[in-house]
TrEMBL record:
SUPFAM superfamilies: alpha/beta-Hydrolases, Galactose-binding domain-like. This is X-Pro dipeptidyl-peptidase. The keyword Protein biosynthesis does not apply. Keywords: Hydrolase.
Length: 578
């Protein structure tokens, strides 16, 4: 392997980015795969010396995402790993998240790609490589249409930047781990000062007012890290910007890669794993908007790939062998969409998402923790509401929740797509979180997460994109709840594909906080939980004839009656095991 260290790549404004290139011995020009991020090229070089780790290994570092260098070189490509402006060994300043000192990151990617294509070790054909931030960078680059960029392979990308940091309006803490290096992640490799977009844009008086407004939020005020960052933003610049922009708007939209999809005209392969609903949602949204040759693959649970990243390389090299080397390997003859269906653990294919025709059917929240296709017949005077009181973390670690479940399924029941939860809720505070988790529970009690849904109560407004079972919230303003009123909240359930096997149950949990660690969260990156409520809240859930709280889910076929004698279900389960 030939290693070219610390290459200086000129940008059009005179700033130089740093890069390393790896290729096989010999002078033969080869196609190049480019990886760009702020995590540091030296960190990515650990792919040469650290065996891939799965969560929750303590050596798993979520920032080693540029791919398997040895494999790239072996497959006949040049692996080029670069530091974005203001990070690593590159020059310049980095302001905000996807903005580098007023220069769009896609513009820098254009210049970087064309420089690589002109080098003697490159044959002029370029693709890109890397997951998560590296994947988002591919979309920025492709939208600028550099002539030498022939195709991209995007795995685990983050697209709608507001939804990356506020799920349903509820702040998600994981992006801070990735940016600042917390809980095992290395974080951004800023060797030059990283500037806050907010501090650069607004006057000190305006910043003081924004900080005061955020500290008035009891959820923020009860979280020490938030208070610290708001008072001392230096060295926490990117997270300060996120905290002070709690609703969607121009600051997020100008950085939203989905808005750039219309500009992309090269082939795009999109890959994402089940279990990370917000990124599945964004990946599907991007796929639907693309008007170029495209593929979509939704891979299996668990949600996180290994670090260093070595997954999906077989498919990636088939894609690039076809588009960069001209090898007709049949990949474009395959269906456009490929989905790993959980439950039965099989692959399903089609030309769109969902890959099969679905019909939306309700499952009603009933008394005694039941989910039923039949609505409640009685009013609230007989079918009394139920509820839970959540004390803040300042006085308890216990997460309160309500649970409902179907009877065991008597046939394999397929549910594929996005869903909704219509919840009639009364609270005694101006705001709360509504967090839903859907599980596939086996007769043994073992369960696997199916999907999630999140909604800040003050973000309950729906917009014109909403259809049955497919709600959308604008998140452009926060409207406090009048305590003591019953409101209908429509929670978006992120996309999933699950076959519920015979004897299994669909279980749904409702809470306003979530466990810091459980069988699912332990598989996610460090700090991958949501900002808890900072004040005591009582939640009363109405599910009667006048308040039909329910799930609305995309069933592939009309679900059959769920009632089956217990012994029959158990016997069939043991027969299946044998």
């Amino acid at each position: 392997m030939i290693v070219l260290k610390d290459l200086r790549v000129p940008m059009r404004d005179g700033v130089h980015l740093a890069a390393d290139a790896y290729h096989a011995e010999g002078d033969e020009p080869r196609p190049a795969l480019i990886a760009l991020s702020p995590y540091g090229k030296e960190l990515q070089a650990l792919a040469l010396t650290i065996p891939p780790q799965k969560r929750p290994s303590p050596l798993w570092d979520g920032c080693i995402e540029a791919g398997d260098i040895t494999r790239v070189v072996k497959e006949g490509y040049v692996h080029v790993i670069g530091d974005v402006r203001g990070s690593g060994a590159s020059e310049g300043e980095h302001i905000g998240n996807y903005n580098a000192g007023g220069v769009p990151l896609g513009q820098d990617a254009y210049d970087f790609i064309e420089w690589v294509a002109a080098q003697p070790w490159c044959n002029g054909c370029v693709g890109m490589i890397g997951i998560s931030y590296f994947g988002s960078m591919q979309v920025f680059a492709a939208s600028e249409r550099p002539p030498s960029l022939k195709a991209i392979f995007v795995s685990g990308g983050h697209f709608d930047f507001y939804e990356t940091t506020y799920h349903g309006g509820i702040m998600w803490l994981m992006p801070r781990a990735a940016r600042e290096g917390r809980g095992g992640d290395s974080g951004w490799a800023f060797t030059h000062r990283h500037k806050s977009r907010m501090l650069e844009t607004y006057t000190p008086e305006e910043i003081k007012a924004r900080v005061a407004a955020r500290l008035a939020d009891p959820d923020v005020a009860a979280w020490p890290n938030m208070v610290h960052i708001l008072h001392y933003p230096i060295h926490h610049e990117s997270w300060f910007d996120i905290i002070t922009n709690e609703v969607d708007g121009e600051w997020y939209e100008e950085q939203n890669p989905i808005n750039l999809a219309k500009n992309i005209d090269i082939p795009v392969y999109l890959q994402i794993n089940q279990g990370r609903g917000w990124t599945v949602d964004g990946t599907i949204a991007l796929f639907d908007l693309l008007q170029c040759p495209k593929k979509l693959e939704i891979g299996p649970y668990p949600p996180m790939q290994t670090r260093p990243w070595v997954d999906e390389h077989d498919t990636m090299f088939r894609w690039y062998d076809y588009w960069l080397k001209g090898i007709d390997n049949g990949i474009m003859d395959e269906p456009a969409v490929k989905v790993h269906v959980e439950g039965t653990r099989r692959w399903s294919t089609g030309e769109q998402w969902p890959v099969k025709a679905v019909g939306y059917q309700p499952l009603y929240l009933r008394t005694r923790g039941k989910l039923s296709p039949e609505p409640e017949a009685y009013g609230a005077d007989i079918s009394y509401p139920e509820g839970f009181f959540q004390a803040p973390l300042t006085i308890t670690d216990k997460v309160e929740k309500l649970t409902w479940s179907t009877d065991p399924f008597d046939a394999v029941t397929s549910v594929h797509g996005v869903g909704a939860a219509h919840l009639f809720v009364e609270i005694d505070q101006p705001d709360t979180n509504l967090i839903l988790r859907l599980w596939d529970e086996a007769p043994s009690g073992k369960r696997q997460l199916v999907s999630t849904g999140f909604l800040k109560a003050s973000h309950r407004e729906l917009d014109a994109r909403t259809t049955e079972g497919n709600p959308h919230h604008p998140h452009t303003r926060s409207v406090p709840v009048e305590p003591g009123t019953i409101n209908e909240y429509v929670v978006r359930i992120y996309p999933f594909a699950n076959d519920f096997c015979i004897g299994h149950k669909l279980v749904v949990e409702l809470m306003c906080n979530e466990p810091m660690v459980d069988e699912h969260n332990s598989l996610l990156p460090p700090d991958a939980y949501h900002l808890p409520v900072g004040q005591p809240v009582t939640h009363i859930i109405y599910r009667d004839a006048a308040h039909p709280s329910r799930l609305v889910l995309p069933f592939v076929a009309q679900p059959k009656a769920n009632h089956r004698p217990h012994d029959s279900v158990v016997n069939e389960y043991h027969l299946l095991r044998k």
